[in-house]
Amino acid sequence: MDLLPIATDKADGVPHEALFWRSGASQSALVDGWKFNVSDPPGRTWLFDIKTDPTEQDDVSVERPEKLAELMAALASHNAEQAPSAWPENVLLPINIDKDLSQADALDDEYIYWSN
Asked: 15-29: per-residue pLDDT in tens?
């Protein structure tokens, strides 16, 4: 489906009830206003209520385990229908998710791993 008309405000509506994307170790699901992210490594998950937190500042995965399980299952179901990647990653690099390159890393920073 061409998402450009929706992205450029030339069309209204919701193109899909659920959107999934994956790149190397990072995968996400957006289902009914909830966004689930997983990065493995390091084996970390995040859950955001996009309706109330569109900038993804408050991870509610601990407070909403039932919603986390629901989106994990949706992503697993989607992945089961996909072919393996034709271009598997050769290198995984840690990327600091809350800082840009001008800011120093700290021990308690969160990372995802991005493939080449």
From this structure: 778 999 888 788 999
